[in-house]
């Protein structure tokens, strides 16, 4: 490169993220050229911020993604960058320190991606022209500026998740007509959802999870009719869910409201979401019965499963086929666990033939598991634990050929465990503890692989792997049946030891799979935006 005096554009990238390529030049090397654009990805130029780059003061486009820099960036480098800078990507490094405080230094800067570093201090407000602002996964602190919407009126996508932001979201969005995605999850933000969010008519993704927001969902939000993903989970929201969610958000494919204090019934209008693939209302105070209208969620019915969902993911998961396949394989799920729902499990739910995950645990449900339930042939996860369900397990449970997780613990089930369970070759998690099962655990390699704790709390159940020997077995020394009450969070402890997509998914479909979906969508939509 010594003789390339006229070099203006330099690109060095690899498809691998393991840093197999090292960009090795002398520390004090001063290049003879003045670059206008540089793109370095998935190679090593760090750990120090390269001295040769510090003298490049004519750059209008900078990409240093995953290049192993774990240093601070000299303040003079930012100061020397021209005001014509339009593109700045420094993501996926370990860059530390604070950024220059001067606002609006780069009036033409449209893309700012500083994600996945260790930047500190207040949020950088560098450009009135910015349309993409990715600052997630850093250590930015303080509050979101009161005039945020006015300072950056052209913003379309803002990702501020996993920082240390505090305070309220300012009610300053009346003039921000171009917003498509907002992600402020995993901070310490408080207060209510700003009423001015209702002015964001183009909003498609709204992610506010894992903060301390409270109050009710504002009526103005119903103006955001283009929403496809809304995640308000793990906050302090309360009140009755507005029925207009089911009528206004016809494009919604993911709704996560888990771990809040919403109350009242689940209105039939929620069944009017034709594109919904993920519904998580767990850990609230909902009462009443499980809606009989759930089959109206037509995206979870065979023939409609995956049309909208797959189109979105094909865009979002470009170049990551294994993860795409995993999500598409498990994409239809309903989690109503941890509420105060009563009554029987409605037979109508069995019409959701594309349903893959059903979690109704920790409610007050009663009745029996009917043969109709065994018609959910796509089901991979079924959790009915901690209810008042009685009767026997249907013999046709063996028809659920792709079932991987079954939790029926803490109910009033009785009778023998059906031998057909042994035919479920994909079954990797089984818990039937603390019921009234009797007889011998069916023979077969599948049911013998589970821990004895999966069967405990059934005094009349015997045979390996339980601790109770059957009378007909040659070894007559029996261990006393386990009695008493197990720790309330035993199931969580069991599944936290598992692997794969179903770790903790049995108890909290939203905590495992949904989190994965949101994370992957978030990361890959961002990546698509900044590809060259």
From TrEMBL:
Q: Which residues form the signal peptide?
A: none
Tell me the PROSITE patterns matching this sequence: LRR
| Membrane topology (UniProt) | Single-pass type I membrane protein
As for subcellular location, the record says:
Cell membrane
GO cellular-component term (any): plasma membrane
One Pfam entry name: LRR_1
Domain named Disease resistance R13L4/SHOC-2-like LRR: residues = 349-435
Q: Which keywords does this chain's UniProt record carry?
A: Cell membrane, Glycoprotein, Leucine-rich repeat, Membrane, Receptor, Repeat, Signal, Transmembrane, Transmembrane helix
Family to which this protein belongs: Belongs to the RLP family.
**Name of the protein described by the UniProt record:** Disease resistance R13L4/SHOC-2-like LRR domain-containing protein
Organism source for this protein? Linum tenue
Upper taxonomic classification of the species? Eukaryota, Viridiplantae, Streptophyta, Embryophyta, Tracheophyta
């Amino acid at each position: 490169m010594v003789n390339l005096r006229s070099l203006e554009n330099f690109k060095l990238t690899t498809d691998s993220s393991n840093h197999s390529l090292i960009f090795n030049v002398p520390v004090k090397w001063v290049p003879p050229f003045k670059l206008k654009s540089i793109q370095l990805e998935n190679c090593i130029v760090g750990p120090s911020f390269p001295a040769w780059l510090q003298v490049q003061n004519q750059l209008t486009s900078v990409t240093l993604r995953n290049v192993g820099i774990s240093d601070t960036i000299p303040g003079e480098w930012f100061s020397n960058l021209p005001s014509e800078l339009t593109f700045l990507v420094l993501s996926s490094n370990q860059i530390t320190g604070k950024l220059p405080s001067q606002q609006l230094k780069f009036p033409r800067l449209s893309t700012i991606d500083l994600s996945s570093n260790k930047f500190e201090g207040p949020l950088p407000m560098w450009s009135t022209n910015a349309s993409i602002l990715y600052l997630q996964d850093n250590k930015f602190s303080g509050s979101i500026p009161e005039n945020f919407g006015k300072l950056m009126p052209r913003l379309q996508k803002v990702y501020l998740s996993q920082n240390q932001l505090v305070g309220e979201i300012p009610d300053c969005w009346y003039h921000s007509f171009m917003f498509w995605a907002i992600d402020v999850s995993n901070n310490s933000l408080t207060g209510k959802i700003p009423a001015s969010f209702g002015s964001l008519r183009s909003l498609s993704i709204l992610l506010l999870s894992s903060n301390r927001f409270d109050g009710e969902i504002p009526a103005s939000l119903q103006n955001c009719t283009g929403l496809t993903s809304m995640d308000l989970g793990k906050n302090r929201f309360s009140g009755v869910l507005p029925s207009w969610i089911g009528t206004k958000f016809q494009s919604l494919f993911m709704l996560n409201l888990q771990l809040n204090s919403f109350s009242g019934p689940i209105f039939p209008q929620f069944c009017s979401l034709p594109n919904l693939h993920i519904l998580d209302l767990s850990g609230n105070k909902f009462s009443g019965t499980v809606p009989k209208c759930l089959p109206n969620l037509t995206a979870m019915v065979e023939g409609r499963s995956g049309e909208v969902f797959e189109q979105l993911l094909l865009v979002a998961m470009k170049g990551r086929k294994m993860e795409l396949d995993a999500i598409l394989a498990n994409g239809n799920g309903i989690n109503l666990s941890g509420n105060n729902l009563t009554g029987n499990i409605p037979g109508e739910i069995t019409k959701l033939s594309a349903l893959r995950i059903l979690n109704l645990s920790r409610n007050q449900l009663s009745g029996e598991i009917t043969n109709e339930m065994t018609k959910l042939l796509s089901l991979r996860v079924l959790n009915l634990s901690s209810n008042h369900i009685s009767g026997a397990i249907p013999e046709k449970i063996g028809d659920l050929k792709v079932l991987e997780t079954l939790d029926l613990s803490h109910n009033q089930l009785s009778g023998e465990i059906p031998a057909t369970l042994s035919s479920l070759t994909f079954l990797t998690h089984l818990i039937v503890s603390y019921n009234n099962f009797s007889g011998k655990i069916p023979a077969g390699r599948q049911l013998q692989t589970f821990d004895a704790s999966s069967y405990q709390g059934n005094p009349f159940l015997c045979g390996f792997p339980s601790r109770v020997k059957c009378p007909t077995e040659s070894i007559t020394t029996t261990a006393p049946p386990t009695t008493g009450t197990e720790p309330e969070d035993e199931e969580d402890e069991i599944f936290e030891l598992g692997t794969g997509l179903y770790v903790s998914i049995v108890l909290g479909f939203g905590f495992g799979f949904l989190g994965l979906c949101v994370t992957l969508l978030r990361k890959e939509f961002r990546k698509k935006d900044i590809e060259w």
